Task: inverse folding
């Protein structure tokens, strides 16, 4: 399986990092070794001093597809969950400055924790899904799928022009504003529509 992440999909987040809002979706990949499941802890990497959480809605691909038309895209995912696109911000800034790829900053071991997934049938309106996360009990990020620059369907369609999507692939759909640093012993909790789906301890 593969993990594909959309960058800069919420205007306010692009602004907070001083990035331009892209005309077409920006995406990058993480390997399977980035996954954390079952609320296992995240081990703070020794190569970074500024690791950030980015809370994102995650689509689970349920059908093999290539060159998917946007109007049929919904047939290709059947579950939505919550994940963290964990980012070594100091390394990412270095990569951006030098024009290098982001993998060192974005795709390292443990950089993609995901929680429990919910079936699509739980969501009457895919353009109105609320999610939020708490860090040590305080809400630090809040988002709604309606604020995305590129919708779930447009993202699935766009990615499938380049990559064949396979069953079990995960698509991280971008983070709203409010990203920030993780510290040792932090407790992170992620929610969709008030239901807790992810818990993560930083070790
Ligand atoms: Mg992200």
Result:
């Amino acid at each position: 399986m593969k993990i594909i992440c959309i960058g800069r999909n919420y205007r306010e987040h692009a602004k907070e990092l001083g990035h331009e809002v892209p005309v077409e979706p920006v995406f990058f990949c993480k390997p399977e070794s980035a996954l954390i499941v079952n609320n296992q802890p995240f081990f703070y990497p020794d190569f970074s001093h500024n690791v950030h959480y980015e809370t994102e809605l995650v689509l689970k691909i349920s059908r093999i597809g290539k060159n998917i038309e946007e109007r049929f895209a919904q047939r290709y995912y059947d579950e939505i969950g919550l994940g963290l696109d964990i980012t070594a911000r100091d390394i990412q800034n270095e990569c951006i400055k030098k024009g290098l790829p982001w993998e060192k900053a974005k795709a390292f071991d443990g950089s993609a924790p995901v929680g429990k997934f919910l079936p699509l049938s739980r969501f009457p309106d895919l353009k109105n899904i609320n999610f939020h996360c708490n860090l040590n009990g305080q809400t630090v990020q809040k988002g709604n799928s309606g604020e995305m620059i590129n919708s779930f369907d447009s993202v699935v369609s766009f990615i499938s022009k380049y990559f064949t999507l396979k069953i079990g692939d995960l698509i991280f759909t971008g983070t709203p504003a409010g990203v920030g640093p993780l510290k040792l012993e932090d407790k992170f909790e992620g929610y969709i529509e008030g239901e807790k789906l992810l818990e993560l301890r930083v070790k």
